[in-house]
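Give me C-alpha cells for this 284-residue protein.
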Amino acid sequence: MTSSTTAPVLRTDYQKAVAEYWDYERDPVNLRLGEIDGLYHHHYGIGDYDPRVLDAPAPARDDTIIEEMHRLETAQADFLLDHVGDIGPSARLLDAGSGRGGTSVIAHSRFGCQVDGVTISEAQVAFANDQAERRGIDDAVRFHYRNMLDSGFEAGSMRGLWTNESTMYVDLFELFAEFARLLAHGGRYVCITGCSHDVTGGRTKAVSRIDEHYTCNIHPRSHYFKALAANNLVPINVIDLTTATIPYWELRAQSPVATGIEEAFLTAYREGSFHYLLIAADRV
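Here you go.
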C-alpha cells in the first residue's frame, strides 16, 4: 500500500486536507449506490433518466431512484472507457484518483488487463482492494496509496490512463507531465471533468460553491488544453457532456441521497459558467 518513491505521498497541507476529507467521507450518495452491485463510483452520471422512477410507489420509490442514479453513473464510466482505445489483455492501465475503484473494476472486466489505481486516501485504497479481493480479481486490479503527481510507476509502463473527476485537486501542468512520462508512445489519456468557462465562468457563485463543497479548485477549460500541449499530449476527441449530465443532477436533486450541492451544479451548467467535458489525448 506504500509508494515506491522515497518522497512522502502527501506533500502539502492542501493535499493533507483533501486526503483527510476522503478518508472520513461516508456519504450515502457514494456508498448506497455502490451497494447495488459492488461498483462504487466517485463521479456523476450521464444520459436521460426514466421519469417513471419518480412515480414509483413508496417505499420502493427511494430504491428505484437510487438504482437509476447508479445506472447513469455506470454509463458515465462505460463512456469514458469507450475512448481509451484498443486495449488488449497484455496492456496495463492506470486509474489516477481511483476513489473506491468502480471504474477500475469495469475496465478489467472489459479489457481483461492489469489495472492499477492510485489515490491519496488510505481509506479508499483499503476499501477498493477489499472489493477487488471479494471479486477475485486482486491479482490484476490493485490500488495503491500514492500521489498521482508522482506515482512511482515505470516510465512508459501504461498503455492508457484516465482521470474521472479528479483533476480539480492538482496542478494540471504537473499532472500531465507525469502522465506523459507514464504513457507509452501512442498511449491514450482520457479525462472527464467539470471545468469553468473562460469567458463567462470564472468564479461565479455557483462554481465557487462547488469548489467549497468538495475542497477542490476547478480549472478553466483552456487550462486543460494548454497543459496537454505543453506535455506532448494531443487531443483527438473533445466531447461536451454538459447537456448529457443535467438530467442526472435533476434526478439526484429529487433523490433520498441529495446533499444540497445539486442546485449549484444545475445553476452552473444552465448559466453556462461550468462545463462537463470528456477529453481524449494521445501521447506523441
